[in-house]
Design brief:
This protein has helices at residues 37-51, 79-86, 98-107, 123-126, 130-137, 171-185, 204-210, 221-230, 245-258, 300-311, 332-346, 357-365, 380-386, 392-395; strands at 17-21, 28-29, 32-33, 55-59, 90-93, 113-116, 142-145, 167-169, 191-195, 216-219, 261-263, 267-271, 282-285, 294-298, 315-319, 351-355, 374-376. By secondary structure, the chain is α/β, with parallel strands linked by helices.
Length: 399
C-alpha cells in the first residue's frame, strides 16, 4: 500500500497553523444545509488537530463560481452546520491568503477553528497556480487533506499545497485509502464487483479496468441491457445503448482472457410502462421480453444465484444499483443483494466497499449502510479510483 503521513505522526501542535482541506460542498435548501454527512466525516480530523493545540484553518469549495466572488456560493452558508457538528464556535474569514488572514490567525487561540472563504472564488485554485498556493501556504505550518472526494482534482488546495508544507492525510482520507486498498489494491481473493447504473458509456473505463482486476463482475441496471443486446437478446424497449454492443463484446472478451466471470441477469422484471407497481408488471426469462416491454430490474432467480456467488468471494466492490431502485417494486434486486452482502460482511466472511452517489442512496434504502465494511461518499473520485486512475490529491500525499 502507498505510504503517507497521518495525524499519528503529529503530537503537540500548540500555536501551529494547520490548513485542512475538507469537503463542505453540501446540499442546501432555502439557505440551510439539508445533509451534514460530509461535515461529520471531517469532524474527527478537525477536533483532533484542535485538541493537539493547532489553530485550524478549514479550506473548502462550494459550488462552481468559476473564479469569481458569488455571494450565494460563499462557504459561510455552511457555517451553522459546521459549528453544530463540531460543537464549537468557528470564525469565518472572507479571505484565503494575505493580510486579512494573517490578522485573523493572530486573533485565534491554540485549538481555535476558522473557516476560510470558498477556494474557487480565486482563479488560481482550479488552475493549480503555484503562486496562489504559495500565498495560502505562507500563513501555515502544516497541510492536512481530508477531502478524498476532491482528490481526483489537481487544484491548488487539493494538490499544490501538499508540495509546499509537511502534508498529512486526515482521518477520513486515511480510512478511505485503507478501505480502497483492501478492495482493489491488495484484496483478499476471490473479488466480486457489482456495477450498475443506467449507461455503459458512463462507466466504460470502470468496466474495462475491473475485468482485469476481479474474479466476478456482476452487471445490473440499464447497462446490463446493452450487454444482453450484445449477446443477441431482444431487450424490447428497454434503456439500451445499441451502438455500444461492440464495446460490450470487447469487455466480455477481455474478461474471458483475464479469467473474470461476467454475470448478466437471466430472469428480469419487466413492464410496459415505467411507473410504480404497473399493471403490466411481470417476471420472465431474458429471452421472453416482448417488443413493447422494458427491463426494469434483475429477477429473483438471478439475484439468488448472485447471492451464492458472493458466498464464494472474500471481497466486494459495489458501484450502482441493479434496477430502477427509486421506484417500487424495481428496488427488489438491489435490496436483496445488498442484504446478502451485508449479512456476509457481518459474519466476517466478506470485506464490502461501496461508493458513488446512487449507490449510497440505494444502500441506505436497503437499510444496510451500517453493515458494509466501508461506504465512500465520494462520487467522481471513487469512480476514477475504480477506473485505476491515479488521483492527484492522493499522489501528492505519498512519502
Amino acid at each position: 500500500m502507498t505510504k503517507f503521513r497521518t495525524l499519528d505522526d503529529l503530537s503537540d501542535l500548540t500555536g501551529k497553523v494547520a490548513l485542512v482541506r475538507v469537503d463542505l460542498n453540501l446540499p442546501m435548501q432555502d439557505g440551510a444545509v439539508t445533509d451534514d454527512t460530509r461535515v461529520r466525516a471531517a469532524a474527527p480530523t478537525i477536533l483532533e488537530l484542535s485538541a493537539k493545540g493547532a489553530k485550524v484553518l478549514l479550506l473548502a469549495h462550494f459550488g462552481r463560481p468559476k473564479g469569481e466572488r458569488v455571494s450565494t456560493m460563499s462557504v459561510s452558508m455552511t457555517l451553522d452546520a459546521v459549528q453544530a457538528v463540531l460543537g464549537k464556535e468557528v470564525m469565518f474569514v472572507p479571505e484565503i491568503a494575505g493580510p486579512v488572514l494573517a490578522q485573523s490567525i493572530g486573533i485565534l487561540q491554540p485549538g481555535d477553528i476558522a473557516l476560510l472563504e470558498n477556494t474557487r472564488f480565486w482563479k488560481g485554485e482550479e488552475a493549480n497556480d503555484p503562486e496562489f498556493a504559495k500565498a495560502i501556504a505562507a500563513n501555515a505550518d502544516i497541510y492536512v487533506n481530508d477531502a478524498f472526494s476532491a482528490a481526483h482534482r489537481a487544484h491548488a488546495t487539493t494538490e499544490g499545497l501538499a508540495h509546499l508544507l509537511p502534508a498529512y492525510a486526515g482521518r477520513s482520507m486515511e480510512a478511505e485509502l485503507k478501505a480502497l486498498d483492501k478492495a482493489l489494491g491488495t484484496p483478499v481473493k476471490p473479488v466480486a464487483a457489482v456495477v450498475g447504473g443506467a449507461k455503459v458509456s458512463s462507466k466504460l473505463d470502470v468496466l474495462t479496468h475491473l475485468v482485469t482486476q476481479v474474479d466476478h463482475l456482476i452487471i445490473g441496471g440499464g447497462m446490463a441491457n446493452t450487454f444482453l443486446a450484445a449477446r443477441g437478446v431482444n431487450v424490447g424497449k428497454s434503456l439500451c445503448e445499441h451502438d455500444l454492443a461492440p464495446t460490450a463484446e470487447k469487455i466480455m472478451e477481455t474478461a474471458e482472457q483475464s479469467g473474470c466471470i461476467v454475470h448478466l441477469p437471466y430472469d428480469v422484471v419487466v413492464a410496459k410502462e415505467f411507473a410504480a407497481n404497473p399493471p403490466s408488471l411481470r417476471t420472465c426469462n431474458v429471452h421472453e421480453v416482448a417488443a413493447d416491454e422494458m427491463i426494469l430490474d434483475v429477477g429473483p432467480q438471478a439475484v439468488e444465484a448472485l447471492a451464492d456467488v458472493l458466498k464464494t468471494c472474500r471481497t466486494l466492490v459495489w458501484n450502482g444499483p441493479l434496477g430502477a431502485f427509486e421506484t417500487e417494486p424495481f428496488d427488489m434486486a438491489t435490496v436483496a443483494l445488498a442484504k446478502s452482502a451485508a449479512a456476509l460482511t457481518s459474519e466476517g466472511a466478506l470485506v464490502s466497499v461501496a461508493g458513488g452517489g446512487d449507490t449510497v442512496a440505494a444502500l441506505a434504502h436497503a437499510g444496510v449502510t451500517e453493515q458494509f465494511s466501508y461506504i465512500s461518499t465520494a462520487g467522481g473520485a471513487f469512480l476514477e479510483w475504480m477506473e485505476g486512475k491515479e488521483l492527484p490529491g492522493v499522489k501528492a500525499l505519498e512519502i
